[in-house]
Amino acid sequence: MQVKSMYIFPKAHDDSALCCCEYINEDGERSHILAAFCDCEAIDEAFERLVTWKPVEGQTYQKMMMTLADRLRIPWRGGAKQVPLDVCCAFSLFPVILLLGCISWLMSFISYLLILPVVIFSIHRFFRKARVLEEPFISGSDRAKHGGRYPRTQFFLAWLMISVISLIFVYYTQVITYLKISPYENLLLMIFICIACTSLYIVKVTSYAGFEPRVLDDEGMYGEAIESGAWQICIECAKQVPRMASHCRTCDSCYLLRDHHCIWLDTCISTVNDRWFVIGLLFSLSSLAYGSLLSLTTVCHPRLVDMYFTIVLLPHQCPDAFSTFQ
């Protein structure tokens, strides 16, 4: 005799039936990307408060950001894919800063030496202040000690990738076309770029704690390991870690000989990847300096400078650098 189950399990959503512009929203309902700003009480309330010059409450702002993050999608096969809000912000700000610097020399200095640092620093401070507190009742001095963790963001990593791709694109579409750069100079620049990108990629993929926790004794304690002084209990994550390890509030993990958390790579720099990090920085700096030299000597009027056993071209005058938009 067959016995029917008393529990009824909901059917899973059939994602294959979704078109490229449809998706399953946070409420489990079928939705369309064209209805991104429809049927949202938080957005309507926030817009109404802005029109009537009333402050927007924190809960309304948080709910509105969650709704925007859920509805920010791009068409994709099998259903619209969600795009992180911080990545979308990087893709939106980058062309604005880039186009402002193409107006004149004055706007270049203002955009890249004033506006860009202020924007990047403001976004960095925003994420530093927005701590994720697992225990909201903690206050005072304990908040600084157990002050939760910093929220992770892909904004700086997305900005770094867009910058590298844009610089290479501008170099090959605007600088190489002048036919003033020799193949050997171009090859040397590409070698610098490849080494820099490879090194930073290795830094990203090899980031891990770098140690294995010790085994518990019969009483479920780390008594022998702790008494030796080589290991300790981390206050943040309550795990057994080596004495030379420190906790990262962004990664929410402990790393051996941790140096800092690199926001541009969204990873921690520790004993396992610090050498590759230094190599990546050196070759990145060399690529930027050498690429700038080649670009400026191509666009500007160069002059010959004798340096020991060779002759080097250096930019001299750039009166017509901003004569056209190109």
UniProtKB/TrEMBL annotation:
Listed PROSITE patterns: DHHC
One GO cellular component, as annotated: membrane
Reactions that this protein is recorded to catalyse: L-cysteinyl-[protein] + hexadecanoyl-CoA = S-hexadecanoyl-L-cysteinyl-[protein] + CoA
GO terms assigned for molecular function: protein-cysteine S-palmitoyltransferase activity
Cellular compartment(s): Membrane
Transmembrane segments annotated in the record for this chain: 109-127, 155-174, 186-203, 276-296
Top enzyme class: transferase
Its EC number(s): 2.3.1.225
Keywords attached to this entry: Acyltransferase, Membrane, Transferase, Transmembrane, Transmembrane helix
Domain notes: The DHHC domain is required for palmitoyltransferase activity.
Family membership: Belongs to the DHHC palmitoyltransferase family.
Protein name: Palmitoyltransferase
Species, as recorded: Halocaridina rubra (Hawaiian red shrimp)
Source species taxonomy: Eukaryota, Metazoa, Ecdysozoa, Arthropoda, Crustacea
